[in-house]
Amino acid sequence: MSVDYRHAPESKFPAQHDDAWAAYIWTVENIHQMNGDAKRIAVAGESAGGNLAANVALMAKEKKTTQPVHQLLVYPIAGNDLDTPSYRENAEAAPLGKADMAWFISHVFTAKEQTSDPRINLVGRRDFAGLPPATVITAQIDPLRSEGQMLAEKMKAAGVTVDLVDVAGVTHEFFGMAKVVDKAKAAVDAANANLVKAFGK
To answer: Taking the model in full, what pTM does it have?
Structure first.
């Protein structure tokens, strides 16, 4: 299932998180109509989508409903600190730099203070225990690298099985470039292997 969500600035936070959860619940309840198995669903996303996927897993645990069997989180937004080591190192990086993230924040949220919400500042949470295994993929030339790695470490500390795949020499958005970037293909292969394992095939 590939799902969209309402976008800013027309739809502000938390509309995107509400949509992601609604899409997940619809899938759990209806996937049998497409010969799918509700007990073998993974969540996956890149960047903002990585944040949404992580939140779906957290909410499924909180609501004691069907949990995904795996989380694939590709350079997820996982914090609200724009002064981490990777933000400082990659402030002017392309295609995503510090100014770009500040621009997104100004359009997605009605007030900057909303970024402290635990749905955004995942690294500030303490309720990771009991989550499904995760693959977290980070890119060296990406302001989101530090928070992605911190999220992986916090989940590990809570007993979650995490495969952190940190890829050197690549930028944000590299993951979809497997046809032309060998390191992207290797990252996709690693993610696929973990998903196959999670699905029990």
So the answer is: 0.97
